[in-house]
């Protein structure tokens, strides 16, 4: 089932793979190769340590077009601001619970919303992943259940796993969501709403600005939540 003539695969153009703070340029190239294997072409880089670099081109093999067309951003917030659905990979438990999906579940969520939304899949730094602030921009977290004795995956391996599951979900899913009467808010629009609420809460002394605790995280969690 290669899906060569499957029209659903055309929706892969609405998926953006975001690599954050990549330290080794070879990992960018290998990730691009993994993307092209599964038909995903939109690559975004957030503050890569060494890019452009010949190693990224060399490791990409026949996917050098993806590397050459990659867009570089200053922050995750900037990279995903045009997306309505954002999923971020995370290997750690967080203080505030967040909807966490396995790769196959995440792929089903993506498949159900492609055609209606632009979607970003965010992958963190090789050594420490995504920060809590960056994960807070995501509607869902993705956890790849690897062996706890050696749970660390190479960046391109993680990209390959997620991209493969998304492709398979599209090939198998014939019941994606119909077009909505009202489009969902983009990540940028949601962030602007949260910033406005924060300013309003400060004006009415709703919380102690010197001790906000986790109020804004919980507010963001409320607005980022998406129904399946």
Secondary-structure blueprint of this entry?
Blueprint: E1 15-20, H1 25-37, E2 42-46, H2 54-60, H3 64-68, E3 71-73, H4 76-80, E4 85-89, E5 100-101, H5 103-113, E6 119-123, H6 132-135, E7 140-142, H7 155-172, H8 187-203, H9 215-224
Parallel strand pairs: 1-2, 1-6, 2-3, 4-6, 4-7, 5-7
Describe this protein's structure:
- This protein is an alpha/beta fold.
- It has a single domain, classed as Alpha/beta knot.
- It has 9 helices and 7 strands; from the N terminus they run E-H-E-H-H-E-H-E-E-H-E-H-E-H-H-H.
- The chain has helices at residues 25-37, 54-60, 64-68, 76-80, 103-113, 132-135, 155-172, 187-203, 215-224; strands at residues 15-20, 42-46, 71-73, 85-89, 100-101, 119-123, 140-142.
- It has a 7-stranded parallel sheet with strand order 3-2-1-6-4-7-5.
Summarize the structure.
With 228 residues, this protein is an alpha/beta fold. It has 9 helices and 7 strands. β1, α1 (25-37) and β2 form a beta-alpha-beta unit.
**Which range does the strand content fall in?**
5-15%
Shape: globular
CATH architecture: 3-Layer(aba) Sandwich
Judged by helices, strands and strand pairing, the structural class is: alpha/beta
Name a few traits of the molecule.
9 helices, 7 strands, about 230 residues, Alpha/beta knot
């Amino acid at each position: 089932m290669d899906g060569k003539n499957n029209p659903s695969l055309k929706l892969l153009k609405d998926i953006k793979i975001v690599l954050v703070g990549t330290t080794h340029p070879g990992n960018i190239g290998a990730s691009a190769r993994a993307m092209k294997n599964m038909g995903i072409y939109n690559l975004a880089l957030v503050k890569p340590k060494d890019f452009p670099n010949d190693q990224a081109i060399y490791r990409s093999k026949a996917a050098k077009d993806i590397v050459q067309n990659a867009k570089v951003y200053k922050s995750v917030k900037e990279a995903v601001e045009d997306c309505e659905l954002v999923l971020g990979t995370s290997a750690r438990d967080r203080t505030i619970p967040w909807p966490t999906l396995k790769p196959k579940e995440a792929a089903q969520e993506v498949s159900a919303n492609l055609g209606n939304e632009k979607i970003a899949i965010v992958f963190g730094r090789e050594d420490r992943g995504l920060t809590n602030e960056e994960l807070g921009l995501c509607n869902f977290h993705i956890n790849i259940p690897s062996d706890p004795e050696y749970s660390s995956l190479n960046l391109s391996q993680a990209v390959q796993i997620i991209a493969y599951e998304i492709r398979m979900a599209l090939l198998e899913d014939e019941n994606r969501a119909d077009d909505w009467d009202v489009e969902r808010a983009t990540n940028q629009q949601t962030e602007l709403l949260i910033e406005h609420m924060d300013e309003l809460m400060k004006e009415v002394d709703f919380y102690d600005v010197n001790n906000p605790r986790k109020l804004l995280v919980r507010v963001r969690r409320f607005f980022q939540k998406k129904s399946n």
